[in-house]
Amino acid sequence: MTTAIVPAPLDVQRILESIDTMAAQKPVAAQIVARASADDTSAKELAAILAGDLPLAGRVTKLANSAYFGMSGRVSSLQFAIAVVGFMTVRTMATVALTDLDDESRLPEDFWLTSTHLAQAATMLAPRFGERPPDALCLGMLAQLGSALLHHNDPEGYAELVAEEPDLPSRRLAEERRYGIHAQRLTAVALEHWGFPRRMVAALYSLDDLTAPDGALLRVAFEVAARLSSRSHVPVPVGRLCGGLLTEDALDLVVERVRAEAGGLRLAMLG
Amino acid sequence: MPAMPATAEPLVPAEVVSSVFYGAAVSDSLVLLVVEVVDGTPRIAWGNEGATRLLGYGVADLQSLPVASLVPSLRGAEVGLLLRRERSARVDLSVRTASGALVQVVVLCTPTPSGRTWTLQLVPADSGSERVRQATAEIHERRLATLTERSPVPTVLSEQGMRLAHVNDAFCSLVGLHAEQLLGTGWMATVHPDDLDDVIEQVVAVLGGRDGEIRARLVRGDGTERTTVLRLSQLFTPGVGAGFVGTVEDVTDRLAVEARLAHQARHDPLTGLPDRTLLAEHVAERFRPGAGGLAVISLDLDDLTVVNESLGHAAGDELLVEVVTRLRATVRPGDLVARSGGDGFVVIGEDLDEGAAVTLAERIGAALAQSVRLGGVDVRPHASVGVTVQTTGHRTAEDLIRDGDIAVCQAKAGGKGRISVLDERARAGARDKLRLVAELREAIEGREITLLYQPILRAGDRAPVAVESLARWHHPLRGPVSPAVFVALAEEGGLIGVLGLLVLDETCRQLAEWDRVLGAAAPQRANVNVSALQLDDHLHGHVVAALERHGLHPSRLQIEITESALMEDPSSAREVLGRLRDLGVSLAIDDFGTGYSSLAYLRHLPVDVLKVDRSFVAELADGHPQIVSAVIALARSLDLTTVAEGVETDEQAAQLADLGAAYLQGFALARPMTGEAAAAWYAARTR
């Protein structure tokens, strides 16, 4: 069988420019993405900005009251909701809104299923890898942002590419061939562009380097998501992905818990 | 130089621009590169000295170097991410030096307006203050994490709502689960479902900025419960949001000890029964005024003192334990059995009418009457049982319990082993008595108790030698109340002390008054009656104070004590009386012959006088002088003088004088009179 070589239909620069265009169309979300990282930002200040985007504000309040945060519906004010879910989560939700990730018709197949698997796995494993669970949650939620951007810009071509390359490493090579950049690096570029923390960006950059500790948590999270995926996947020994930090037995438990709990997270994040 | 238009912006002279650029070029701290696209490939066009130093290339080598070889981590089209056409970019990157080593830098890339060249500023990441600050913060965080991890105090940390980001080993041990099972909201399953709402409520308050503390039960992995105190503080991380740090104190064992102590404090240690306080609470919880159905069955063991004195206290304790076992076996489930005192028990039953309560009391009586073997002796424990059932007359729980006490007193008065139901008459009598005690208290406080004085005369020449003070109470409605009644009331109602002080003080005052009015003709001595309950360490002080207050010599006072009072606690009585005698106060035994005093013991008492009881004097009229005669002989043999009381006829007076009585007292000789009348009587006798 021969695979037709399709010339790269996209210019990375154009994709990045499209991000800027998105920001212009959704100023509140863009402002949240920009402000939420500042050390001097307060929940009160974020609430004041977020109040300008009622659907997003409603989603944050709903999330704070979801079973995921265990607050049993006691969060009544937006400001308190922001404090409960954390600034990074608010920022992640704003990023989701900004990039139209909440419109499933414009996303690759199983996008949110995989993203919630990634987020749940990363959150659960974060303490073991010395990472903060809230940051890990957001990294997991946004890790596939690049895929979504590629899909936005080349829906048919990207769907075909995904179908042909179910395994991540080979898919990344195919993405590089086709677009000059693979999806996770595009995610990294976008997050860096928006000023997300260096550690999150570094994790994405180091994804392919099995010796880099920065990418270990996300590599393992991707492995968990792959094992839970309906697509065929040859499991990669987890020890190789994280320098022996985790054993297969421990990972099995994580896979089971993620399988059980990711639905709740998805419901909480997306409504 | 042409003149500059007045409205134009001032231009920066070219030499200033040049010097600034030169300054930048030679600055040690700046690493600058200029990039241009040559034949479609971005290449270095120029680098300053800082750049040559950092990258290890000569200025010439640096020129024309493809940017891609400098930034190996940017592959293919990714170089375009750095060299944006219309905006600056900031990227963390590794740059490859001439030696092949990678150096971590932050690249700030600014396009020139032409869009064909870019200025790159490279800031070595290691020297950046931000990285230093971050590293320092990470070290602090790691130290804190280590500290918490090894702390024996169970500690949890949340970074989002109820979601735990961290639990230490001590917390895992406390709940018997692994950290993975507890992180996120997993730990919420360990909080007892009944306590979870309160814990969340507290977390809400803490996330809002307050500190919080709450007691909550945690359910361990093995299903056992631990009671803990959670102390929570807000943990606000700038740029992250609000979480909390919580320390958990396991108070299960402490509470168990406290509960045990509290139980011990309110339960009888021997039998484990609730004490009187708990009994009162139990009744109060169930008492509804106007309703019925509550029954109080009060028991007093009749034989406990006998068992204690004859078989020893261990046997007495054994008896009490046996009685409790039988009581518990006899009462209905839900009835309360309490210990109300040394030999007293109370059973509280609900939904009982009088008939059912009496039936239960009879069953109890029968169960107790079975013999029990104590120290090899068969003993049949009997109890006096009083039954009271709640009526509309009981306004409070205390009323009902008090009636239980009255009922058992009534049963005891009727003889051992009786069951007595408190009837309306007995209840009315008891209430009347309570009212009278209250009125007596008011009478004492208002000095409405008055004294009469009855002279005591020498038998030979009928010369007065002393007076006896006699307390009188004239009730405003009831008229005169007998001293036998109100003295007994004062003893029961705890008023005997104040009554005794009143009599002592008023007598001394009257003696001083007589001295002032009559001079040498005044009564030389007054006799004051003292109750058994006054025979304590305070009596001596009270007597001294009264004498001093009125300027009297101790010989002006004689204390009269009944024979039975002396025998209640003989050794204590001897000590108290000894001190009074040493003071110079003389002592008389009142109503002699009616008690059971041991003659051998009498010999050692510091008394001066025996007062022959009026009942023996009365027998003289019936031709029975034997007892009076024997008492007088006994007194003489012990070197004591005698006073014959209740002399009602001249014949008796003459006969008593013949029998050898030293002094006489009675209506035939002089009636009790007021202080004023006594003064007149004395004055008349002197004339």
Could you explain how this protein is built, in words?
The complex is a heterodimer of chains A (271) and B (687). Helices cover 65% and strands 0% of the residues of chain A. Chain A is mostly helical and 271 residues long. Chain A has 2 domains: 10-98, no CATH class; 103-271, Hypothetical protein af1432 (Orthogonal Bundle). Residues 1-7 of chain A have low confidence and may be disordered. Chain B has 687 residues and is an alpha+beta fold. In chain B, 43% of the residues lie in helices and 24% in strands. In chain B, helix 12 (304-311) runs antiparallel to helix 13 (313-330), helix 18 (496-518) runs parallel beside helix 19 and helix 19 runs parallel beside helix 21 (570-583). Mean pLDDT of chain B is 86; it is low at 1-10. Chains A and B meet through helix 1, helix 5, helix 6, helix 12 and helix 13 of A and strand 3, strand 7, helix 9 and strand 10 of B.
Given the structure, what is the number of helices of chain A?
A: 16
Please indicate the count of domains of chain A. 2
Classified in CATH, the superfamily of the largest domain in chain A is Hypothetical protein af1432
Query: Could you tell me the number of beta strands of chain A?
Result: 0
The CATH topology label of the largest domain in chain B is TIM Barrel
Uncertain spans of chain A, ≥5 residues at pLDDT below 50?
1-7
- Name the helicity range of chain B: 40-55%
Question: How would you classify the helix and strand content of chain B by structural class?
Answer: alpha+beta
**N→C terminal distance of chain B:** 154 Å
Please supply descriptive tags for the structure shown above:
heterodimer; A: 271 residues; mainly alpha; Hypothetical protein af1432; 2 domains; 16 helices; 65% helix; disordered N terminus; B: 687 residues; alpha+beta; Beta-Lactamase; Alpha-Beta Plaits; 4 domains; 8-stranded mixed barrel; 5-stranded antiparallel sheet; 26 strands; elongated
